[in-house]
Structures are given as C-alpha cells and as structure tokens.
Amino acid sequence: MINLGGGVISDLGGFIAATYMRGIDFINIPTTLLSQVDASVGGKLGINFNELKNHVGVFLNPKKVFIDTDLLKSLPIRELKSGFAEVIKHCLVKDKNEFYRLLNTNWKNYDWNDIIKHSIKIKSSIVKKDPLENGIRKILNFGHTIGHAIESVYMSKNNYLLHGEAIAIGIICESYISYTSNSLQKNELDLITKFITKTYKPNIINKNKIKPILEAIIHDKKNINNKIKTSLIEKIGKCGYNYNINKLVINESIDYYNSCI
Ligand SMILES: NC(=O)c1ccc[n+]([C@@H]2O[C@H](COP(=O)([O-])OP(=O)(O)OC[C@H]3O[C@@H](n4cnc5c(N)ncnc54)[C@H](O)[C@@H]3O)[C@@H](O)[C@H]2O)c1
Ligand SMILES: [Zn+2]
After folding, report:
1. Which residue among 44, 70, 96 closes a domain?
2. Each residue's pLDDT tens digit, 178-217
3. What is the CATH number of the domain that holds 146?
4. Residues with CB under 6 A from ligand 1
5. What is the 3-state secondary structure (H, E, C) of the chain?
6. How many domains, in total, are found in the chain?
C-alpha cells in the first residue's frame, strides 16, 4: 500500500494496512510539512473514535518513507505553519541550539530540507530508544496533552483548528506549566510564547470551551490510574515525562495563553 498525502493519510492508510488481513506492507510518501517531519515516521497509526483523537490505533513502521520537499510548494501557508509546530516541539524537547537558530532566522530564509532532516533525526533517535512509548518517547507528546484536547474541541466545521495550530497553543500552555510546576525559567517561557504568538494567528480559547477541553484531557491515553500525566520541559532542549498535573493548573495555563494574545 502506498500512502501519498498528509498525516491524515499516513495515520489512516497505515492503520488500514496494519489491520487489513492482519497486516500488509506499506510505504509513506508524505506531502505536508507535518507528515514529513512527524506523522510519517515512528509507526504510530490510528483513527479518531467517539470524537477523541487517535483513540483506536496500532504501532507499525512503514517499509520506506520517501520525502520530496518540492511537494511543499503547493502547500497553503496555514498548513506549512501547522507542520512547523512539530518542528518547534522537536527543538524544545531535544535541541536548544536549533530552537534559537529558528527563533533568530526570518521565516522566508528557512531551509526546509535542513529543517526536515533535523526534525526526523530527533524523532527517529527517540523512537529507536522506545518504539512502543513506554518511557522516553513520551517527550514527543510535549504540547499534546492540552493541544490534542483543544484540537478535539475545535473540530467543528466552521471553527476548526489544524493539528499544529492546536499543538502550538498546547505548547504555550504546557510551557507555562513547565514554568510553574517544573524548572523552566521565565525568560525561556517568554521566548517560547513570543515565538509561537508571532508565528501563528492565535485564537482566544473561550470560557465555554474549558469544560469540554478538561473532559477530553481526562480521556487522554497517556493518563495512568485516572491521574493526568504529561511531559514537561525543564529548560529549552530538555524534556521529562509522566508529570502529574491537575485541572487547576491546566485552567491557569489556558488563562495565561489567553492573556498573551
Ligand atoms: N502518527 C503520528 O505520529 C502523527 C504525528 C503528528 C501528527 N499526526 C496526525 O497528522 C494529522 C495532520 O496531518 P497534516 O497536517 O498533514 O494534515 P492533512 O493530512 O489533513 O493535510 C492537510 C491538507 O493539505 C492537503 N495537502 C496535502 N499535501 C498537499 C500538498 N503537497 N499541496 C497542497 N495541499 C496538500 C490535504 O489534502 C489536506 O487538505 C493529524 O490528524 C495528526 O493527529 C500523526
Ligand atoms: Zn502532533
């Protein structure tokens, strides 16, 4: 099976390939930045279920992944920026120098070839150590506990957020929690917030969305014994996992996000 398309195609196509006749081989040809830097590598495949993101899924690696950055030429800028959120995430969890390089480079001067290679290198090195996400791979979920819940709640047709747009908000919120509950310094929180709010056209999270967001977080697959578990950064380039967080700090982090835009 050949999955030619964005992350939706590689998640869905891969899931079908992995389950059809108990599994057939597949290759990925990712055509969006998001799928090139993230979704097409690592073997996580899945579909949404009961309005929850990726609630049904399996792990299986493609036989090959072919990436051609020329495909990005037709990609709308909003989609390109959505993929860029995963690039920022990879830097925040593993590479401080690359974070600062991107922060200090004009968007127009980004070399996508280099950026994609760098992101895949980070993701593959982590996945290789922990393919089934029992430990260290969880750091790749930074920004996703709150980001996924926001994405689920903002799925309606006329008011939707792209995956990376929701994750960008999740990164701000979870960086805020990394500052209040972990060792992230205020100056680094400010840099992350500034970089993201300048890159994206951020949406206010309305008060009436907070309850459904919290409910979606409760259903997160990463929770253990009904405790909300998440990955938090200690500083830019270093991330830990399995931190307990509660509804109060999540609420506070969304207030912080709203106050920054
Ligand atoms: N499995 C994983 O590890 C993993 C990691 C990150 C994200 N994801 C998933 O990936 C999904 C998002 O992927 P996505 O951002 O690629 O979205 P997508 O697959 O929906 O593609 C975005 C849009 O761009 C269009 N498109 C694709 N390639 C194009 C091109 N070259 N030129 C013009 N238009 C093009 C598509 O038709 C679609 O409308 C989310 O569901 C997310 O959960 C999975
Ligand atoms: Zn993601």
Report:
1. 70
2. 999 999 999 999 999 999 999 998 789 999 999 999 999 9
3. 1.20.1090.10
4. 5-9, 11, 31-32, 34-35, 38-39, 42, 44, 71, 74-75, 79, 82-83, 163
5. CEEEECHHHHHHHHHHHHHHHHCCCCEEEECCHHHHHHHCCCCEEEEEECCEEEEEEEECCCCEECCCHHHHHHCCHHHHHHHHHHHHHHHHHHCHHHHHHHHCCCHHHCCHHHHHHHHHHHHHHHHHHCCCCCCHHHHHHCCHHHHHHHHHHCCCHHHCCCHHHHHHHHHHHHHHHHHHHCCCCHHHHHHHHHHHHHHCCCCCCCHHHHHHHHHHHHCCCCCECCEEEEEEEEECCEEEEEEEECHHHHHHHHHHHHHHC
6. 2
